[in-house]
Amino acid sequence: ALGSDYPFPLGESEPGNLIESMPFDEATKAMLLHETALRWLNLGNNLFD
After folding, report:
1. Which phi and psi (to 5°) does residue 14 adopt?
2. What is the pTM of this model?
3. Share of the chain above pLDDT 70, in %
4. d(Cα 39, Cα 9) in Å, to the nearest integer?
5. What is the pLDDT of residues 15-31, one digit of tens each?
6. How many beta carbons lie within 10 A of that of residue 29, not counting itself?
7. Distance between CA 22 and CA 31 in Å, rounded?
8. C-alpha closest to that of 35 among 46, 14, 11, 15
9. Second label for 22, Cα 20 to 30 Å away, from 8, 32, 33, 34?
């Protein structure tokens, strides 16, 4: 929903690049990229393997 009220470029040109470039461990990156959303939606990672 980022920028949905006005059609101009906002955010990253390739989603996830900023998180991938940070010096976080892989578990933290996974939480930021998808695991938190899956937990909130009560879905398991097994749906996406």
Report:
1. -125, 105
2. 0.68
3. 76
4. 29
5. 899 999 999 999 999 99
6. 17
7. 13
8. 46
9. 8
